Amino acid sequence: MNTEQGREVKIYPRCFPESNHYFQTGISGIVDRLSNEGCSTSYIFIHLNRYTLAECLLQFPNFNEEDDVIIISTPQLMPVAVFWLTENRHVRAVFKSTTSMDEVINTISDNRLGDKMPTMPLKRHHMISLREMQVLKQTLEGHSLNDLQETHYRPASTIHGWKAGIARKLGVRKLRHIFS
């Protein structure tokens, strides 16, 4: 809490999406406990679920040089979150949305700012590759099958196979179901 003209003003942590007040309130509790323990609280917290996936996919690489990101993901989208953890230098940790607040706080407080934090490993067949992430993003952007064929120099059957594989990793029958 900061004081402004004699009254206390609550400073909310940086969260995405900003409009999710329940998520922001939960993260505020985590940040308050971290600051009480003397830990850095300068993280951006991202809530990754099927409602925020589209916006995250389109805006994800846009971070400032000094930003450190922690992703809290639904179990279904953990493959996407773990991909970002391994491929993006700004992402420091990934937690399932079912992880207890105490476990999140302990993991963050046990690690220095700027270091990657340990996360639950995914089985190899659940990991998403760079190409699969590109196909997922292009599908979200509305690229047609012909566009994907031209971009990746592959026949339609291969593109359909890739989409089916991504859907399987995300626990849905068809890729479009992840966005609905």
TrEMBL record:
GO terms assigned for molecular function: DNA binding
GO terms under biological process: regulation of DNA-templated transcription
InterPro entries listed in its UniProt record: Sig_transdc_resp-reg_C-effctor
Name listed for the protein in its UniProt record: Uncharacterized protein
